[in-house]
Design goal:
- The chain is built from six helices and seven strands, in the order E-H-E-H-E-E-H-E-E-H-E-H-H.
- It is of the alpha/beta class.
- Strands 1, 2, 3, 4, 5, 6 and 7 form a seven-stranded mixed sheet that branches.
- The protein starts with 7 loop residues before the first strand and ends in a 6-residue tail after the last helix.
- Bound molecules: thymidine-5'-triphosphate.
- Thymidine-5'-triphosphate binds next to helix 1, strand 3 and helix 5.
- Its EC number is 3.6.1.9.
- Keywords: Cytoplasm, Hydrolase, Nucleotide metabolism.
Length: 201
């Protein structure tokens, strides 16, 4: 337990965006990226895919902290994918793949799924959930896509774009949770933390 008799909050993520979003809730927390594999062998629906990975990331960090028996942790794991025509688009491996992904997304609506898992190490209790947000992109010329890729922004992002950066100029509109598209469904995080006794408001 931390000083205020609250469990210590740990964000199981290497993502600077997730860290920023969680910090926006005014919480004190530490960051410990998970080293769990992000490969899902079986074919599963996107909502299952992102919840499996969010859970895997949180469990991996819970396991690595299990030696500190006196300390109680709330561990937060998350995973984001873009889904178009039933196909899961993760992060592009190279610029040509980013070009292909963005060409497919242009002028159409896709769904961004973000999974969330919070684990209370004191009890082993887990809460898992996800958010699905529909994002519609503007029509994009090949030249505009190339110029976007030249910013370097697409490479570490699901679907090869970041709505919070230059990618904002590619998006026409969305339906759902903006924060979940960036990588963390902040309202769902606050609901889960509250269920584990952390009141934010
Ligand atoms: C669609 C979209 C995705 N993304 C990002 C969120 C995620 O960081 C990334 C998807 O990869 P993830 O595998 O979900 O996360 P990560 O590898 O960056 O971090 P970690 O696994 O350690 O938590 O894409 C944006 O930043 N903006 C967007 O608009």
């Amino acid at each position: 337990m931390s000083k205020a008799n609250q469990p210590s909050i740990v964000l199981a993520s290497a993502s600077a965006r997730r860290k920023e979003l969680l910090a926006g809730l005014g919480l004190t927390f530490t960051v410990q990226p998970s080293v769990a594999s992000e490969v899902v062998e079986e074919r599963v629906a996107p909502e299952e895919f992102v919840t499996i990975l969010a859970q895997r990331k949180a469990r991996d960090v819970a396991f690595s902290l299990a030696d500190n028996e006196d300390e109680a942790y709330l561990i937060i794991g998350s995973d984001t994918v873009v889904v178009l025509d039933g196909e899961i688009l993760g992060k592009p491996e190279h610029e040509e793949e980013a070009f292909r992904m963005l060409s497919r997304l242009a002028g159409r609506t896709h769904t961004v799924y973000t999974g969330l898992c919070v684990i209370d190490t004191a009890t082993g209790r887990e809460k898992v959930g996800f958010r699905a947000t529909n994002v519609t992109m503007r029509e994009l010329t090949p030249d505009r896509i190339r110029r976007y890729i030249a910013t370097g922004e697409p490479m570490d992002k699901a679907g090869a774009y970041g709505i919070q950066g230059y990618g904002a100029t590619l998006v026409s509109h969305l339906e759902g949770d903006y924060f979940s598209v960036v990588g963390l469904p902040v309202a769902l995080v606050s609901d889960f933390l509250e269920e584990f006794g952390v009141k934010l408001l």
